[in-house]
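Standup notes, structure subgroup. Blocker cleared on the beta-D-glucopyranose input:
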Amino acid sequence: MKRQFLLLVALLVPFMLSAQQKQQPIYLDPNAPIEERVEDALSRMTLREKIAIIHAQSKFSSPGVRRLGIAELWCTDGPHGIRPEVLWDEWDQACWTNDSCVAYPALTCLAATWNRDIALRYGVSIGEEARYRDKDVLLGPGVNIYRTPYCGRNFEYMGEDPYLASQIVVLYVQGVQQQGVAACVKHYALNNEELYRHQTDVDLSDRALYEIYLPAFKAAVVEGGAWSIMGSYNKYRGTHACHNHRLICEILKGEWGFDGAVISDWGGVHSTEEAVLNGLDLEFGTWTDGLTEGASNAYDNYYLALPYLKLIESGVFGTEELDDKVRCVLRLTFRTAMNPYKPYGAMCSEEHVDAARTIAEEGIVLLKNKKANLPVARDAKRIVVVGENAVKMMTVGGGSSSLKVQREVSPLEGLERYYAGRAEVAWVRGYVGDVTGEYNGVVTGQNLADSRTAEELIAEAVEAARTADHVIFIGGLNKSEQQDCEGADRTQYGLPYGQDEVIRALAAATKHLTVVIVSGNAVAMPWVDEVESVVQAWYLGSESGNAIARVLSGEVNPSGKLPFTFGMKIEDYPSHSGECQFPNPDKVYYHDDIFVGYRGFEKRGIKPLFAFGHGLSYTTFKYSDLKVSSEVMGVDDSLRVSLTVTNTGKCAGKEVVQLYVADKESSLVRPIKELKGFEKVELNAGESKEVSFVITRDALSFYDDQKGEWRAEVGEFELLVGAASNDIRLKGGFILQ
Ligand code: BGC
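Run returned:
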């Protein structure tokens, strides 16, 4: 009898459950198509609930709909690690003790890896940390093009080339979003300098817009499938970017079919009417402490809050635009906060630490290495390290990307650990830079104060250097105001704090000097001919010191390549010459047009200090056997380009094979050549591998301003394959017909 009863229950339970499920509203059914969920939720919301969901309720969150169980959305910076918690209404620290993260290398370093697998790993790792901290939207990555080395936020971006940035950003976005966390690609668009970012009004040719400044955003949306995008502070043709009709309605949502949410940069909204009509979906940060409006709840006074409600109630606006915004926010919510299938995430795991170190090691660029000065000789007994950046914590500072890390291995610590028991590692100060050690209430706890004069510090450094087998100067910039920091640009191209004098004095005192530059920007190197080695080490995050030690010692063979041009002097940059001005408080026209970075240097025949794509290795590579699958190509066909790369040196290494395309016959001026393909290959000593690329019309096209379309013109094209933009090893060609 009992068995029969149990059998009956077992048979009935599935029916009872499915009856219950049927009663569940569609919007709560994670298996229902997302658009049905969106429409169902929308149909149940009141006007006030719709208004509430399209603006912030705190510094980093927007409300859901409590009555309906629609979740809040929580955002976090981004883009190198998960920002520590701040107070509800303030930038100040909430002083949680469980929010220390792993800091990943800055995005310039990621771009310098030229490695798509690494970009995916970066996205997955940071996405997992965001997920574990219960964040729904990661405010990053940044893909503004490196137009000037003075831009304070270049370290948060992916360099000067639209193709390279596009390739890297797609994988970063996908990695993050696999965790059920939205990437919020920023700062859309034309936010290429900081100081006057709220007022700079950019104008430029459509050709420069489409060919240089938009491709990485487009790739993030179209190929990466980004779920949100951040409208930038600056204006474009007179209107603020986050509610700019052309940028958002026509291009982003129109041409690219973006169906995610457009989020304003914090305090980037300036008009209810424009925000309503021009595609902004979610307003954040207006009156940036959230309270200065003086009302009981400043959030109610946001442009997309009560002012919008009043305009609807008075009949100025209908609810069509509102419903569209709510749809975008709901879609974002269902993809993230209300996605029950997302993974759980992880924080500060060994895998994350390993990822941070691997990214750093792959991104470090060996710029110069005379007489095989590096790696540091195995029999070196005394290594002298000079410079503040050898000890300064670099994860704190720089603006909104500032982090609170569980641990950060400084370059000195990394070297000391690596050489423990093998060589003595001594440190001397060399110069005094920024000793504040605090950002937004996160304090490094380091006391870097030093009252000695520059002469005394140099004398000490020189004396120490004389007794060393190898001297490593570690300096650069440091994320303090005007030294790679949000909200302020650099004011000098040269190194600050008298570092040039220190380097010159060291160069005179030793024959084994390595200069390591920690920065997110190019710097002048008037001493470059006097030193044996130069290494570009970026801001490397938690594992900085370990990565630097492993590269300098030869444990890891460097394989990074520059994602932007290092000019000899600031006037060499197209953005700082001719009619171009800097900084730009008002209207600015980008006279440098499409000739940004190497495109501009090459056009004007200016020799860079270190070219785009440059980066050395401890081994050497030979390029051979270039094959182009056909001498002619139809406009809608494709070509295969292949070659062989051989490691001709004595140790294993990785090489970034770069493919540039030159249009030899064109109705309008084109860059001398443009990057259209790259592959990073790993080769043991003596090993050869074939590398191949596929050329389609995309790689050959330019944006025709007049016709408003991409066009590939028939005629002759040259294919240039090499190890850097100024180190072309093989040439081929074909006719497009
Ligand atoms: C920055 C954004 C950042 C936001 C939130 C703004 O000032 O421009 O990049 O995501 O603040 O911190």
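Discussed briefly. The longest helix spans residues 2-23.
Next: hand off to the docking folks.
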